[in-house]
Amino acid sequence: MDYDRLYTQPSFNPGRLVGPIKLQPVPGKGRGLVADREVPLAETLLVVEPVGTALAAPEGRELLPHHLVAALDNMAAGGRLTAADRARLRLLYDGSAPDSPTSARVRGASLEDFRKVEDKLRRAAEAPKKAKGKGFGAPAPTAAATPAASTVNTAALGEAPLTAAELQAMVAFNSWGNSYSDLGAAPLRKEPSEAVIGVWPEFALLNHSCAPNTVAFNVGQHLLVQAAADIGQGQEATTCYLGDLVQAPREQRRSWLKGSYGFDCECERCKAEKAVPAEVSAAVTAAYELATSEQATKLATEAPGRSDRAALRPLEEQLAAATERLEAAMEAAGLEERLRQWLRNSAYAAYFTLAVIRDLPDASGPGGLGGLFGRTGAAAPFGDPEAPTRLAGIVEAVAPGSDLHLYLTLEALSRTAEAYDREDPRVAEATKACLRAHILRYGVVSDAVLRALLEARSRTQHYLGRITLASQSEGAGTALAGSLLKQTAAQAARELAGAGSE
Ligand SMILES: C[S@@+](CC[C@H](N)C(=O)[O-])C[C@H]1O[C@@H](n2cnc3c(N)ncnc32)[C@H](O)[C@@H]1O
């Protein structure tokens, strides 16, 4: 996979790529994608194109499924939705009983079915004249050319126009969107950041987990799915349907999934969180509810305008008590570290808000600070340079390779580089964590492109804007972080690649 060209050249078309995964029945979930062999983190699992085209809008605009339904409907009315597009949609889950014996047969039981549709799509594009009136438009393949594994009559699937109800169901269960473009690739490709929503069919075969092992993001019209953790042979590749709710307690997550997707989540994280002692669950809920309460939100959004940490003192104390209670309960229960990180995510709002409050300068005055969740002014003398390192570790447990994960590792690097001596192991650790996070999202790119991606991301304020990048206005931190990255980027990539081939 030529990541360098993909992330820097908008004219480069990477085509469709299906990595070491196969489609197969997964008990209780219908079909799912399962690793064919050991897949090391940072390996590409899928590169796919959307059905028709993805719908784009100016950054920040919320694009909802009904917008996509309307756009696809328009494409259909204007003759811009091909028979192959219709078939690609009909191969997807439509809300019926996921394990019914007919559903796999009707909707496709292998990635071969999807490839077959793609091939027809391509042939139709290459031979538009011959195409007329013949199924997908291409001459019927000879028996010898027909892939043996296919069980589905894809031509028949593409024939009838899509009904409104069909389109709605397919979009409701299978669409993916984001309200901004990739924060590294879009600037490198000199593309504006845009909101996007679409259906990328092979991606829609991934089932959900509250602690997924892949990360997905779009570059132009393509959607990339990368292994964001090592995936064992026979293990299911999963994505997360929850958005920000991935950092909510179990009950909230499960009830949203049930309401939106109709299933009871029994992922590893849900099962493990269910089995913890009642005191731990109660501490998670209390911390989450405190941090997301109306009173806390009001304080957090109003007080910082006054640059007044004192106004937040009561909230800080309550949050500190709530997170300490959770830590003590997990310690008393002797929980393993991975489960502790999952539970911290379930109460992430408390850990995060506490870290941000503690980051505010103590003295009130003309500090130039913006809102608590959107500070824009000069860098403060940071209280705890390791706060972002801890937050990054928590986030990686449920959203590896996500924007939040990458952002926090960059923040951790710039702060430790400012706070400690260059030889300090904390700086080396932060450098490694930052490179690892970026490589697991972007794959093993060249040093120059990795560097450019990191720089582009570190210049982006709008998305998180939550904690100001210390180095941004200072220069010194950036230069130091930059030189550290230069030394170790190639090494980190080699380590990751090496780990995969062992
Ligand atoms: C985008 S589709 C995923 C692929 C789908 N399993 C298929 O057979 O095409 C979403 C649907 O898959 C099922 N699903 C996804 N994740 C699941 C999970 N963790 N547990 C149970 N069902 C799940 C649900 O029926 C959900 O509405």
Describe the 3D structure.
With 502 residues, this protein is of the alpha+beta class. The protein folds into three domains: 3-255, Beta-clip-like (Beta Complex); 257-374, no CATH class; 378-502, no CATH class. Helices cover 48% and strands 9% of the residues. Strands 1-4-10-9 form a four-stranded antiparallel beta sheet, covered by helices on one side. α3 (83-90) packs antiparallel against α5. The site of S-adenosylmethionine (SAM) has 19 residues, from β3, α8 and β8. Residues 28-32, 92-93, 98, 173-174, 204-205, 207-208, 261-263, 265, 267 line the site of S-adenosylmethionine. Residues 123-145 are annotated as: Disordered.
Element layout with pairings:
Layout: H1 3-8, E1 17-18, E2 21-26, E3 30-35, E4 44-48, E5 55-58, H2 65-77, H3 83-90, H4 101-107, H5 111-126, H6 128-131, H7 154-157, H8 164-174, E6 176-178, H9 185-188, E7 194-198, E8 207-208, E9 214-219, E10 222-227, E11 238-239, H10 250-261, H11 268-274, H12 278-292, H13 294-302, H14 313-333, H15 337-346, H16 348-359, H17 387-396, H18 403-419, H19 425-442, H20 447-459, H21 476-501
Parallel strand pairs: 8-11
Antiparallel strand pairs: 1-4, 2-3, 4-10, 5-7, 6-7, 9-10
Helix pairs in contact: 2-8, 3-5, 12-14, 12-16, 14-16, 16-17, 17-18, 18-19, 18-21, 19-21, 20-21
The structure holds S-adenosylmethionine.
